Each structure stands twice: as structure tokens, then as C-alpha cells.
């Protein structure tokens, strides 16, 4: 798989809410950083974050508006839409950067987004989107 295809497959696994498939695409020493927050290092910590987040999620719909690859780095412009099990929805605009290692696994994942938008969308009792 090319680096871009790797990221496209990773996004498809998020849209399927398939934590095991998401994690299988990540290097053991991945650095996962939602830029307004502290980074998470390694698959054990990342799995804990992903599973904690997915606990309340019924469905993901990450819409990729633009994607570009340069070597082993892939940039995405997305809207990440989440439907919660209680019926709420949240949508955040995201710029993502993925680094792909020689073995084809994701070694770095950085998402940049507006923390005020995130807080508004995820805190809204009636859903934000």
C-alpha cells in the first residue's frame, strides 16, 4: 500500500468503528497527538484512548475533503462526524498529518483542530451537528 492508501484504509477502519483494525495499522511506538491536548505514545496508550472514546460512539463518518502525500507523509483535511449512542452528533473540522514507517505502519499521527469547536460539539446536550 502507498502511504496515501494506508491513511485511506485507516480512515475506513475509523468509519467502521473497528478498533482492532485501527490499532493494527499503527507502529508499536506511534506518537498520536491531538495538538490541543497532550500526546499519547505507544499502542497501549493509544488503544486506551481510542477504546475510551469509542465507548460512547455508535457511528463514525470521517469525510476527507482533501488528501495529499509527499514521501511517507500524508496530509488530510477532514470533517470528523460522530454519532453517539444516545443519539447526539458532533462534527469537527480537522487537519491531520500522518507519518508512515518503512513497514507501512503509521508512526506518527497529529490532528489539528479548534479546541473551542471540539468542546462545543462534544458538550452540546442536543448535539452540535
Task: Kindly summarize this structure in a few lines.
The protein is α+β, with helices and mostly antiparallel strands.
Describe what you observe in this structure.
It holds the Pfam family LEH. InterPro entries: LEH (IPR013100), NTF2-like_dom_sf (IPR032710). It comes from Erythrobacter neustonensis. This is Limonene-1,2-epoxide hydrolase domain-containing protein. Residues 2-117 form the Limonene-1,2-epoxide hydrolase domain. This protein is 31% helix and 43% strand. It is globular. The chain is built from four helices and six strands, in the order ααββαββββα. The chain has helices at 3-15, 19-24, 43-54, 115-123; strands at 26-34, 40-41, 57-70, 73-84, 89-100, 106-112. The longest helix has 13 residues, at 3-15. It has 129 residues and is α+β, with helices and mostly antiparallel strands. The protein has one domain: Nuclear Transport Factor 2, Chain: A, CATH 3.10.450.50. The N and C termini lie far apart (34 Å). Strands 2-1-6-5-4-3 form a six-stranded mixed sheet. The mean pLDDT is 93.
List keywords for this structure.
single chain; Nuclear Transport Factor 2, Chain: A; 6-stranded mixed beta sheet; alpha+beta; 129 residues; Limonene-1,2-epoxide hydrolase domain-containing protein; globular
Amino acid at each position: 500500500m502507498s502511504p496515501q492508501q494506508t491513511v485511506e484504509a485507516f480512515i475506513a477502519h475509523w468509519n467502521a468503528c473497528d478498533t482492532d483494525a485501527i490499532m493494527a495499522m499503527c507502529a508499536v511506538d506511534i506518537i498520536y497527538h491531538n495538538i490541543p491536548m497532550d500526546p499519547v505514545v505507544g499502542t497501549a496508550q493509544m488503544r486506551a484512548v481510542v477504546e475510551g472514546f469509542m465507548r460512547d460512539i455508535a457511528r463514525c463518518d470521517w469525510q476527507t475533503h482533501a488528501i495529499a502525500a509527499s514521501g511517507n507523509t500524508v496530509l488530510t483535511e477532514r470533517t470528523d462526524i460522530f454519532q453517539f449512542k444516545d443519539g447526539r452528533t458532533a462534527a469537527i473540522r480537522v487537519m491531520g498529518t500522518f507519518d508512515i514507517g518503512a513497514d507501512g505502519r503509521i508512526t506518527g499521527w497529529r490532528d489539528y483542530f479548534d479546541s473551542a469547536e471540539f468542546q462545543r460539539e462534544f458538550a452540546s446536550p442536543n448535539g452540535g451537528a
